[in-house]
Specification:
Elements: E1 3-10, E2 13-21, H1 26-40, E3 45-47, H2 53-56, H3 65-75
Parallel strand pairs: 2-3
Antiparallel strand pairs: 1-2
Length: 86
């Protein structure tokens, strides 16, 4: 593996923990694939913990706590799950 990311899936939410790569942009490719797979299983929230220019280029945005907590509550009632392995 030349790059990837890992995190925790809980119903309709995925909490990203870390991205890594040995090759330039490998973690970006992993992020694109993760988002596609999370959509397939019905995930409605991807929490990246930190906003970076890297994540912003994929459409990431910051959410204030007043909006985050209700969004998380809604995600936790969605079936969601882990995406199938390639």
């Amino acid at each position: 593996m030349q790059g990837g990311l890992y995190g925790v899936a809980l119903r309709g939410a995925f909490f990203g923990e870390s991205m890594f790569s040995r090759k330039t942009d490998a973690s970006k490719i992993a992020m694109v694939e993760l988002v596609a797979r999370l959509r397939e299983v019905g995930t409605v929230m991807l929490d990246t913990q930190w906003m970076t220019p890297h994540l912003r280029q994929f459409g990431g945005y910051e959410v204030p706590r007043s909006q985050y907590e209700p969004a998380l509550a809604a995600a936790l009632v969605v079936a969601g799950g882990l995406p199938a392995k390639a």
